[in-house]
Amino acid sequence: MSGHGFLLANYVPGTSVIHRAPLWLKFLLVLGCGMASFLVADWEVAAAALALLCAMFLFSGAGMARLVRAVRPVLPVLLAIGLFQWWQLGGPTAARIVLNVLVCVVAASILTATTPVQALLDGVASLARPFRRLGADPERFALTIAIMLRSIPFIAGAYADVRDSARARGLERNPRALVLPVFITTVAFARQTGDALAARGLGEAEDLDD
Description:
Blueprint: H1 17-20, H2 23-39, H3 43-59, H4 64-71, H5 75-89, H6 91-113, H7 117-128, H8 138-168, H9 175-199, H10 204-209
Helix pairs in contact: 2-6, 3-6, 5-6, 7-8, 8-9
C-alpha cells in the first residue's frame, strides 16, 4: 500500500526551537488557532497568521515539500467552499474563511511534524487523565487516536490505489469499481486491527471479561 496523502505532516526529527518546545505549548498553538478561526473577521489578519505559521513550519526544518503535501489534500474542498462563499458573501469573506481553515491545518501540521507520535499520544493521555473520574480511560483514548492516525493514511492510500487501477481499466466513472474494493479493503484492515487488539487483551474481548 503506497503512502498517499495524509492531511497532516508526519514527524520530522530535528533539534529546532519548535521541536524542543513543550508539548502543552504546541497544543495551545493549535487550540488558539482553532478558536481564532471563529474570531478573526479580517482576511488580511488571517493571511498574516498563515504566513507566520508557514514560516514556523519551514523554520522547524520540515521543508516546503512536506508543507505542500500536508495542505494539498484539503485544497479542492477549500476551492469549492471559497467559490461558494465568494458567490454568497463576497471575496473578503471567502478569503477569510479559506485562510482560517489553512491556519488550522498548518498549525496542526506544526504539531505533528515536530512531535514524535509516542510523545503526542502520551500528551493526549495526560490531557484526558482528569476525565478518569468520569469513567474515561486515558490510555484507551490515546490508543484510539493512534489507530485513527494509522487508519486515515491507509484508507486514503487504498482509495488512491483503487482509483488508479480503475482508471487504467477505463472504469474511473464507475462508482462500484471505486467504492466496493475500498470498502472490502477497509473492512479487512479493521478486522486485522481488531484481532491484533484482542490478542493483546484489548477491545471487545476485554470488555466481555469485565
